[in-house]
Description:
Elements: H1 3-25, E1 36-40, E2 46-50, E3 62-63, E4 87-91, E5 97-101, E6 143-145, E7 162-164, E8 166-167, E9 180-183, E10 191-198, H2 199-203, E11 214-218, E12 234-239, E13 251-253, E14 260-262
Antiparallel strand pairs: 1-2, 2-3, 4-5, 6-7, 8-10, 9-10, 10-12, 11-12, 13-14
Amino acid sequence: MNEAMLNRYWAACAASLLLLIGCEDTKTPRCTPGEEVSCLGADGCEGIKTCDGNGLVYGSCQCSVGSVSPDPPGSRPALSGCMSGATRACIDANGCEGVATCSDSGTFGACQCPTPPSKVPSLRPNVLGAACLGNSQCGSSLVCWAASETGPGALGGAAGGYCTAPCQDIADCTLFEQPGDCVHFAGAMYGVCLATCSAAASDAGASSCGRSDLACATYAALSLTAPVQAAAEAGLCVPHCRSDAECGARSCDLAEPVATCVGGPDAGDAGP
């Protein structure tokens, strides 16, 4: 091989080497072969993509079986679990039955009652003068003066029962749903709370006490001094049976102004 041919040979080799080096430069690794990084798939699922063997590109995102796509913004349910606009029955602080509605924030609003509010009978505690058979029907602050019991002083039981409380003065009887006054009957060691009423309505033929076994007696009839600001017709609801039939196994003592059930089976002094 002469010198000219040798030079052409080395020139061709040099060119080929440069071309090879140039091609290798275009294949500079961009990631570590086998490297895994987290990714989001086409449907929003969380997955993994792996760098190929040449270190040039990552493969497609592979999600694990059973993975859950994240909820789009605004689609997650409220933490309380209620859906906006949903309703549920409720009872408000005054004991009326109403409806609460779930707001856009996912929480139920205040209980909304119809007008006028309707009281649930079993949830009406501390109604002075209400009928009763036992203490459980009079709330947490009153006791039942039952027909079978001996009342204060020489009195018998109240026909139909009478929710009341022991007292020292009128202040002890103003904390209940129906306002009242404290009456000390002769011979009694304590006073009892009696609900207030208007004798004017009773004179018209209907007891303002709302019960046929109660009568509205004026303060004068009870030998009591009325409160300073009380109207002339102001009175108190007192037990007033009208016949033995209202007293069960006992008899009705038709005394005035307070008529109670006496004689017969007696549960003893279980009154207030």
